[in-house]
Amino acid sequence: MTVNEKNYQWSGSLSKRTKTDYIVLHHAAAAMCTADDIHRWHLNNGWAGIGYHLFVRKNGEIYRGRPIDTVGAHCLNYNSRSIGICAEGAYDSTDTSMPAAQKAALMWLVAELRKVYKTAKVVQHKELTATSCPGRYFPFEEILKGEAANPPADIPSDWAEAAWDWVRGAGITDGTNPQGAITREQVAVMLYRFAARAGLL
Ligand SMILES: [Zn+2]
Q1: CA of 90 to the centre of ligand 1 (A)
Q2: Cα 14 to ligand 1 centroid, rounded to whole Å
Q3: What total number of domains does the chain contain?
Q4: What is the pLDDT of residue 81?
Q5: Which of 117, 160, 182, 201 sits between 20 and 30 A of 42, alpha carbons compared?
């Protein structure tokens, strides 16, 4: 996945942000809108332009809002120490479930940001301000879990380490993605390689 870059006309200058204590998730409270729509709406509020740093559409496309290292306009009293991510949709009313593509993009984005902002807490807007944002149908727990469920790519669990070293050394597996799921044909191939090695064929 990638972030689509945008060129906005800002009304005034953006200030640099020095702290990132929170990653705040929002919904647009609009069933269908683009990053440009939000930019226009926020200009009409008298702001410098789109107040979020990132915007995720229902189809999973991710767009840049404000540069990531600037102060946003998305969460009263927390803008100088947070990053704002907004999801297209009205998850307090008409949108009662989130499309899989959008959910996957949000999971990816949150995981990527946490690699950079390791101490930042991921929260919903309503945890910091009196608002219903991002709505009761916003799958916050799932988005957080999805991120936690990503296993470290190249490290087997402690209890599997000796076996993993052996099967890799014996050429029974290629040694990639130790915590990934496996298909029946992959099991068959591994058994076949073992049988060949043991002289059973
Ligand atoms: Zn919000």
Answers
A1: 11
A2: 20
A3: 2
A4: 97
A5: 117
